[in-house]
């Protein structure tokens, strides 16, 4: 007899397949040209990244400059944190007032995910809208919540996030160049960034054919930089044929994907691609995404230089802070309405 809480059960068309296709062709990009500062090398790298963004929306990077010790330290701390009893973790639980901390009942598109998370922001405090209500102009400050155990948890997290931030700016500048813009054209949007790092823990699941670690979704921010362990489970919807394909773990590489904000900035040149996480009954899995997100007050719209009479803006401008707060609310509790999506801002 197998029992699983029905909140986790995906509708039939969204359940994972038992067979896995390994993604051949997700580009593996070597960032070492960034160290030499040779303009030819950097232009070639930008072109390679541009191709990956257009064809896949996903790529992996190696020689990215993040020392392996930072990753090992946070991976170890994450494991120790999650393997504690639930009551310890719930001492720093996320709630309606504070979106940061521990959480074990996130919903993606109103189905519960088979995972536990711990979130912390980069900026302290991080300023966000006080509510998702469009007319409410009040703001609030968000502070991180830190557990007692393991003792080096906070240090491991903060050091890692600093490395992620540096890498995120490098990638942002390459993407900007790849769009034919000056390298720093997009940097200002991140002055008081709302970026956050998430520790994901996917426990073993007795019914991996019915549930998902994270249901299908697109990341709503600008860029995501993900460290996955050696278990595997991330699947990407391949642009060429719509098949779900697995991103095979590559030791020491980071997986990068463009989110909805870059899709809108690029006026659909770079699409934010759907992805999801499969779980399994044998091995638990850990992953760490860093979500590189703009300042709450940023109005997201196609970049002017990238539109013209023949290629008019495809989106109405929207406010990043309200968009994100609205999405967060639907991840926090099951709602009876469809989640907010960028296609709601699409011009016909
Ligand atoms: O754990 C993973 O591999 C990906 C997680 C993810 O897509 C997310 O948290 O947005
Ligand atoms: Fe994601």
UniProtKB/TrEMBL annotation:
Specify whether Iron is a keyword of the entry.
yes
User: What EC class does the entry list?
Assistant: oxidoreductase
This entry's Gene Ontology molecular function terms read: flavanone 3-dioxygenase activity; metal ion binding
- Do you know which Pfam families this protein is assigned to? 2OG-FeII_Oxy, DIOX_N
The UniProt keywords, alphabetically, are:
Iron, Metal-binding, Oxidoreductase
A GO BP entry is: coumarin biosynthetic process
Q: Which family does this protein fall into?
A: Belongs to the iron/ascorbate-dependent oxidoreductase family.
Protein name (record): Iron/ascorbate family oxidoreductase
Q: What is the lineage of its organism?
A: Eukaryota, Viridiplantae, Streptophyta, Embryophyta, Tracheophyta
């Amino acid at each position: 007899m197998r029992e699983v809480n029905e909140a986790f059960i995906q509708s039939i068309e969204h359940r994972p397949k038992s067979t896995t296709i390994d993604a051949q062709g997700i580009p593996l990009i070597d960032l070492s040209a960034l160290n030499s500062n040779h303009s030819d090398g950097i232009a070639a790298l930008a072109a390679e990244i541009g191709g990956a963004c257009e064809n896949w929306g996903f790529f992996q990077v190696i020689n990215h400059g993040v020392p392996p010790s930072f990753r090992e330290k946070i991976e170890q701390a994450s494991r120790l944190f999650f393997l504690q009893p639930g009551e310890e973790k719930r001492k720093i639980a996320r709630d309606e007032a504070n979106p940061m901390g521990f959480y074990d009942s996130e919903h993606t598109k109103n189905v519960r995910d088979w995972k536990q998370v711990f979130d912390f922001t980069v900026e302290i405090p991080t300023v966000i809208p006080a509510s998702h209500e469009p007319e409410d102009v009040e703001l609030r400050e968000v502070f991180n919540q830190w557990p007692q155990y393991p003792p080096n948890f906070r240090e491991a997290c903060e050091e890692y996030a600093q490395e992620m931030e540096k890498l995120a700016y490098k990638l942002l500048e390459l993407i900007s160049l790849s769009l034919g813009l000056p390298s720093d054209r997009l940097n200002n949007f991140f002055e008081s960034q709302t970026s956050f790092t998430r520790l994901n823990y996917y426990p073993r699941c007795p019914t991996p054919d019915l549930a998902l670690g994270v249901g299908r979704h697109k990341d709503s921010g600008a860029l995501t930089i993900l460290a996955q362990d050696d278990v595997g489970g991330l699947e990407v919807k391949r642009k060429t044929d719509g098949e779900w394909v697995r991103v095979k773990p590559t030791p020491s590489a980071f997986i990068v994907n463009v989110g909805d904000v870059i899709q809108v900035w690029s006026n659909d040149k770079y699409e934010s691609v759907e992805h999801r996480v499969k779980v399994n009954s044998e091995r638990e899995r850990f992953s760490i995404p860093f979500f590189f997100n703009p300042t709450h007050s940023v109005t997201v719209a196609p970049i002017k230089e990238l539109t013209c009479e023949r290629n008019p803006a495809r989106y109405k401008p929207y406010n990043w802070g309200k968009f994100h707060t609205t999405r967060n609310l639907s991840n926090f509790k099951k709602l009876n309405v469809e989640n907010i999506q960028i296609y709601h801002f699409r011009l016909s």
